Fold:
Amino acid sequence: MKPVKVGLLGLGTVGGGTVNVLRRNAEEITRRAGRGIQVTHASARDLKKARICSTEGIRLTAQPLEVVNDPEVKIVVELIGGTELARDLVNRAIANGKHVVTANKALIARYGNEIFNAARKQGVMVAFEAAVAGGIPIIKAIREGLAGNRIEWLAGIINGTGNFILTAMRDEGRDFADVLAEAQRLGYAEADPTFDVEGIDAAHKLTILAAIAFGIPLQFDKVYTEGITRITRADVGYAEQLGYRIKHLAIARRAAAGIELRVHPTLIPERRLIANVDGVMNAVVVMGDAVGPTLYYGAGAGAEPTASAVVADLVDVVRVLTSDPENRVPHLAFQPDALSDLPILPMDQVETAYYLRLQAADRPGVLADVTRILADQDISIESILQKEPLAGESEVPIILLTHRTLEKNMNQAISRIEVLSSISAKVMRIRLEQLSR
Structure:
């Protein structure tokens, strides 16, 4: 059979990596897909820019619509990023009857419902494995490998930049701003790091994972999102003393009243495997009722790790080019008419444990005042760490770990604690998860 012709929108790091992987592993990929896969068209903003791949045999253009509209192209691979232009190009490709592969998590998180609906009507596939956790096949694992399970929860380190920063803060005792500057020098963080350090990137990915895990529509606007910019090296050190590590965690959990969707700094027991995922690496734990906890670990970004996922999607699409569209694996794992209307819980209805750091006056009765406020809100304390004041200092840090309670109870308690005359600063609150059954 003739090779399937592929058009790339974007020929940067991931696009170049995709070309290299397809060419280097052409024989193996053909054996797996049943047909060859060739990149024959590509668009790029700067046609004179040096590439990490050879462009021999590829028709280059600065106009992505030329690729999308070319009748020879059977599969369009969208790698330009952003949302508005990418949305227009993907919808045009679908309208033209072309299958689509994308690594664009923001596009899927924000517009996936619309895109998948259009794809179903046209009988084409939209594959997006590379949109979450780079080269880790987490979407296929949940959608297909764990299809016999009721997913109870998942928790992931799915942003390498944030994980790099927290790892360096712990291992080297450095401040957030210092490590962020290094991450920018190394190319791990953008000049504007907001998407990474404020959790927006992770929230995009969590939106996708939750939809597949629970059979719900994509609902990015309902994800609670909190960044790591307020984490201090002192917090990292106190967590270590208490047997925990701080990770920027994305959590989706099935609760009695609905689904929790949240991204925030989280204390995790240091004995958990995911607590030992360091640097720019990603990992996701998925809890299924039949299989129990499973861990997926690997590179969350990079040219060839991400290209690995893009090529895997291309193989999947080629395998089913001639199959009945009604019998393909659904985009969000569940049949479209079987998606659930389970509500997404507001954050104040989420139950979790907490790490609290208070800056308190060094005098009798302070701790009693704090514990009384917590008791009034039905919050029980698991452990307390109180440091001696430094010479000449009149204040001390007090570290509290609590048992699980509703977020609204903790919000009320913190509001009352912060107005005490003995407390001189905002209470530092980090949520705590055991990640056990």
User: Anything to note?
Assistant: Residues 22 and 92 are 25 Å apart (CA to CA).
